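Mods, move this if it's the wrong board.
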Amino acid sequence: MDMNVLPRMHPDNLTEADRRLVAAIQHGLPLVSHPYAELGAQCGLSEGEVINRLAALLADGTIKRLGVVVRHRELGYRANAMVVWDIDDAKVSELGHCIGRFDFVTLCYRRPRRLPAWPYNLFCMIHGQDREAVLERVRQIEQHCGLAKVPHEVLFSRRRFKQRGALYAPVQSGMPR
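Not the wrong board. Structure tokens:
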């Protein structure tokens, strides 16, 4: 079944338990051995109920996705670059899949060009311990995916912005931040 055609649950139709769960997860999962049990304790649900409710909220589109925000600098990755490519539109999907197969590529997505100043339509994020490591990874992509002659730029980050998910529910007193 195509998950994109399922109706989204209207916020007014959420149960109070669902509201507490959404409020709890928007600040991230607790870093404990059983995060769903911990969330359940905060929300008055069992571990199984948390898992089932999250699965239902994902399935009906109320929650679009659950993901991890990695703090790369804390893991020793000091060089972070967005590589932007000017890919032929007929090949962008194929080449995006090729690039996305590399385990060091953390994001790979298509965006519209903004001509004449911005000709790039495929973006990928690469993290490395230093700039040369990132540039070597770009060379690997060029060689493996046949992109050596394709116009691109490697845009290294100069600063890090706060990384977090979206806020959907008001902060509940007693809920961890």
